[in-house]
C-alpha cells in the first residue's frame, strides 16, 4: 500500500498554544521548542476500531445510560461528514463525543458545578462513519455552565469531538457550538480561534435532519486536515 502524502497543517486557522485570555492555557502551553518526530511516523496507520467493539446504543446518548426513564432536556440530532484534506469522505473511522447535560453538568468528579446530575444521561457516545463519511448522534442539547476562567465566565453550549481519521497525522479533538449562541462573543476559547476560521466550529440548523415531533437537527462537518481543517480544541 502506498503511503499518503499529507498536506501541511493550516496553523493560521488554529488558536495559539498560549492564549492568556484562556487562563489554563498558561500552564498547559509548551515552554520549550517542540521536538520533531521522524518523518515516517506521520504515515503510520492508527489502530483499527472495528464495528464489533461498538454497542447498538453507543451513538444514542438519550438511551445508552437510561436507568429509569428518559434524560431531561431538548432532544437533538447531530450529524455530518468527516472529510480529509481533499474533501473525500473518511470511511469507517471512530467518532467519539462527550458533553454536559441539559443543566450544564458533566458526569465527572471534577465537575462540582451547582447543577443537577441526570441519572439517565452519561453524556458520552461513539460511532463509526459510513461509506460517505457520515456520522450520526442522538443526544440532549447541552447547557451552559460557569468555568471560573474570569469573573462571570460561562461556556457556550458545546459538544466535544475526538477523531483519529486514518493516520496519526489526522488526529483531531475539537468542539461543536450552536448557531446564535450569545456566549460565543464572550468565550475566550472560541474567540481564541482566528476569526476567519471560527465558523468551522459552529453547527448548522437543518430542518431536513430534524425529526418531526421528536428532535431538532444540526449538521456539523469535520475536516481532518488541510486548508479547510476544523480548528482544534
UniProtKB/TrEMBL annotation:
GO terms for biological process: 3,4-dihydroxybenzoate catabolic process. It holds the Pfam family PCDO_beta_N. It comes from the Bacteria. Residues 78-106 form the Intradiol ring-cleavage dioxygenases domain. PROSITE patterns: INTRADIOL_DIOXYGENAS. Belongs to the intradiol ring-cleavage dioxygenase family. PANTHER family: DIOXYGENASE, PUTATIVE (AFU_ORTHOLOGUE AFUA_2G02910)-RELATED, INTRADIOL RING-CLEAVAGE DIOXYGENASES DOMAIN-CONTAINING PROTEIN. Signal peptide: none annotated. GO terms for molecular function: ferric iron binding; protocatechuate 3,4-dioxygenase activity. Gene3D superfamilies: Aromatic compound dioxygenase. InterPro entries: Intradiol_dOase_C (IPR000627), Intradiol_dOase_core (IPR015889), Intradiol_RC_Dioxygenase (IPR050770), PCDO_beta_N (IPR024756), Protocat_dOase_b (IPR012785). It comes from Caballeronia concitans. SUPFAM superfamilies: Aromatic compound dioxygenase. This is Protocatechuate 3,4-dioxygenase subunit beta.
Amino acid at each position: 500500500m502506498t503511503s499518503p502524502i499529507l498536506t501541511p497543517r493550516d496553523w493560521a486557522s488554529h488558536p495559539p498554544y498560549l492564549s492568556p485570555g484562556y487562563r489554563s492555557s498558561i500552564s498547559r502551553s509548551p515552554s520549550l521548542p517542540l521536538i520533531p518526530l521522524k518523518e515516517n511516523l506521520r504515515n503510520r496507520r492508527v489502530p483499527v476500531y472495528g464495528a464489533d467493539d461498538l454497542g447498538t446504543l453507543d451513538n444514542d446518548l438519550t438511551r445508552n445510560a437510561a436507568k429509569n426513564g428518559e434524560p431531561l432536556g431538548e432532544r437533538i440530532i447531530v450529524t455530518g461528514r468527516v472529510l480529509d484534506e481533499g474533501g473525500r469522505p473518511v470511511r469507517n473511522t471512530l467518532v467519539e463525543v462527550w458533553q454536559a447535560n441539559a443543566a450544564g453538568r458533566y458526569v465527572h468528579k471534577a465537575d462540582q458545578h451547582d447543577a443537577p446530575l441526570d441519572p439517565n444521561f452519561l453524556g458520552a457516545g461513539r460511532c463509526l462513519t459510513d461509506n460517505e463519511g457520515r456520522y450520526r448522534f442522538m443526544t440532549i442539547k447541552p447547557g451552559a455552565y460557569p468555568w471560573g476562567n474570569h469573573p462571570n465566565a460561562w461556556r457556550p453550549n458545546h459538544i466535544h469531538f475526538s477523531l483519529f481519521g486514518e493516520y496519526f497525522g489526522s488526529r483531531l479533538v475539537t468542539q461543536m457550538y450552536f448557531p446564535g449562541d450569545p456566549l460565543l462573543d464572550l468565550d475566550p476559547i472560541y474567540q481564541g480561534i482566528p476569526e476567519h476560521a471560527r465558523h468551522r466550529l459552529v453547527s448548522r440548523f437543518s430542518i431536513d435532519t430534524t425529526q418531526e415531533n421528536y428532535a431538532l437537527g444540526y449538521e456539523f462537518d469535520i475536516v481532518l486536515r488541510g486548508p479547510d481543517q476544523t480548528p482544534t480544541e
